[in-house]
Fold this protein.
Amino acid sequence: MAEVEESSKPLFAGLSDISISEDIPVEGDISVPVSSQNADNDLSTLDEPVKDTILRDLRAVGQKFVHVMYPKKSSALLRDWDLWGPLLLCVTLALMLQGGSADSEEDGRPQFAEVFVIIWFGSVIITLNSKLLGGTISFFQSLCVLGYCILPLTVAMIVCRIVLLGGTGGVSFAVRLVVVTASFGWSTFASTAFLADSQPANRKALVVYPVFLFYFVIGWMILTFSTSQ
Amino acid sequence: MASPDDLQFQEFEEAADLLSSNPGAATLSISSPSVAAASSGEVKVDLSDDEDNQQESSELLAGEKQTGGFWTFEYYQSFFNVDTVQVLDRIKGSVMPLPGRNFVKHNIRSNPDLYGPFWICVTLVFSVAISGNLSTFLSEMGDTDYHYRPEFHRVSIAAVAVFLYAWLVPLGVWGFLTWRQSVERQISGYTFLETVCVYGYSLFIYIPTSILWTIPLYWLQWLLIVIAMVISGSVLVLTFWPAVRDDTKLTAFTTMAVIVSLHALLAVGCKLYFFQTATYTGSSHSGQQITPASNHTALNVGKHQ
């Protein structure tokens, strides 16, 4: 048998010298420690009440909102990316830009689909752009950051709608302009704080400019929103 | 970096291929290709021969750079191989065309990128739509009947127009130049990417022009159109003239005329559609308001009868 082994496995020629004879007792117990903890965890997330599951995700989303509002270069946003927050913000923004009035064809307002497409395709194109220019951030991390940084603009949209309840004169326009400009600056600053580190040094401006354009267009959509009279 | 000796060696092989296809030509073993061309007596002795050979060798170099097939990510990454400084240089070159400075040879230098054309087109789409909206608003501000509308559908129209122009016209120009190049060997064509690059960067001047178009002075708007068309048209003319001047006079001038007129069509079309003057929007606006009223009166008249 050893000869057969030798001829069939020339690579392991040295090993064929070692033989386990019957005089050396080899015995013992081979036992794989059953990780009952994993099984317990799996059972527990299936068994836990739905409220706990939802609250856990909501808490993660809320924590990322806090990171966006006070951007301090932490990597939590990048590490545990999720797309719930961007979806929530995008749908909220698109719904608020509708106005819910009947004469939507006359007004030329952006349709729900247009807002949705601009936000999601815009984020995808900016992410592809940064990856093509040699960025090291992953695709979904970048989508997550860009989506979460729409939060200041959504807050501005809520403020604008409240201001519009008071009237549509020059004062309200000035207030809305200031609010939208401030939140646009905040969004751009927050997203560059998260994204800038992953770009090569001599191409940072090439990556930041599309982000600037993206938030500028969303800001313009918010600023030009007006309720019908 | 290839040393000049390598380039010389490749040129010699090219000349050897030419001579081998013409067995009747004199076979002189001289390394400079212009002398060999003169001795064969069929190719025109041209001062732009060096340019042609540089063009061919740069095309060869560009061909070697593209790694992988078109389904890999690295293939597309090779088109974004530019730095901020390079993009700014190319934009500056498109805004200040100097006679004798070919945009492709001077600025692009066998490193065509897709970053510039794509983002300039996107910026142009939004700047035209937003400025058009602003100019309509400013010209109608005194009208009390006017209710501001964002007119967001214009973004889609602007996007279709600009992207069709920036991608289909270079395709047509490149196809035409390549066809002429296969018919007559003197013509040095450009690669498709270089054509797209030239067209994309030449559109840059329209971005500040469209922002300045919001000023509601009629003569200023037309003056701006003329200036923008002259600048970006001259970039295109300076780029494509060396490629077609060796052709017959008729073809050369026709090609130049078509390129310039398409460019003018884009500019004037954008101006007329997005930046309608007060009279146009006034009539269309009041027309929209009058028509339901006239339908109403017609119905009333019908009922009374």
Q: What stands out?
A: DSSP finds 13 helices and no strands in chain B. Chain B touches chain A through 27 residues (CB under 8 Å). The two ends of chain B are 90 Å apart (CA to CA).
